[in-house]
Amino acid sequence: MPVPTPSPVPEQLGRTIETLYRSESGRVLATLVRLLGDLDLAEESMHEAFAAALESWTLAGIPDKPRPWLISTARFKAIDAMRRRARFNGAQGDLALYMEAHVSEAPEENEEIEDDRLRLIFTCCHPALPPEGQVALTLREICGLTTEEIARAFLVTPATLAQRIVRAKAKIRETPIPYEVPSPQELPERLDAVLRVIYLVFNEGYSAAAGAEVTRAELTGEAIRLGRLLAGLQPEPETIGLLALMLLQESRRAARTSPAGELILLENQDRSLWNREQIAEGMALVERALNSRRFGAYTLQAAIAAVHAEAESVAATDWRQIVAIYDQLVRIQPSPVVHLNRAVAIAMRDGPEAGLAHIDAVLEHGELANYYLVHSARADMCRRLGRTAEARSSYEKALALTQQEPERQFLRERIQRLQ
Q1: Pick from 110, 112, 92: which is nearest to 100 by CA?
Q2: Peptide bond into 352 cis (omega under 30)
């Protein structure tokens, strides 16, 4: 009797599961870590659950609530894994039985403010981990970003980034680091790393490192959700400032691309498409953070975004105020990217020649040599000054350094216009 071949996975189901993985894998993993207490086991069982979904849902259809199905399936995959390990290690037998009972009785959802993903973020951002490991691990495990995507965000090689993740996981396992939100006494000193992680998650969603789309709404939405949770848990000025910044930036999302997915620069955006509810909430939060007198870099960035939100057009924007805020920002966060953004603002206030001088000064330091936006900004300054050959060269450098398709198309069009 011939062995039946497995049914092929329908193309639409494959796309649905891929989309579900991008949007839900972080939540599923975080809940599994809470239930299992083991990050590696949780990650392994989650991947097995998604693989099982491909087979099961082909026959039975997609369940009404996919996330609980995935969590339940992953739990039993984990139990099976513990049973297999127990066969080879008798000492693990009692542990497997205990975990089976513990996992079977555990709830699948947690709607409290200290939700699973927030717990996992604090675990991944534990001070026992090196800062670069904190951020890399959280982006990988919470948000499901690939090693390559995170490496591009950090301007390091994928191999270097992978080693950071491996070392961070080992540290969590060996220390061991508890899976919990810190106590109120511990929380303030732990906020900086968590805020940085949420900020980087938002940035990846706001301007995707690669792919066919400019934005990834699931990431910006998740970063804002986590920002709200954190603001409720610890309403410090910078937590509020970061939430304000994300809301004000996200308010422009509908205007940043054309219906065909083409990139639209700020100067050409239809501002009637900006989300006025998000702007109003963001403006109120900025004012609240500034009034505290204990604000920092996130609040200052939010203040810059607020000036843009208030303006009816690029021409009507108060560029003097924006440059003045950048002057404060570079004093507390003198990073190359902040200097680059300040240079662009100076160009809008004083003209492209002044902006170009500042951009060239940034490039001289070398940190942004492989950052496509610095070359794109320089190309725009040269284009506006009529320095066509320099503009083309800088646009070509930017094109070689970006893997986001709408950005690549925009740069190709700029090069063609120069020709």
Answers
A1: 92
A2: no
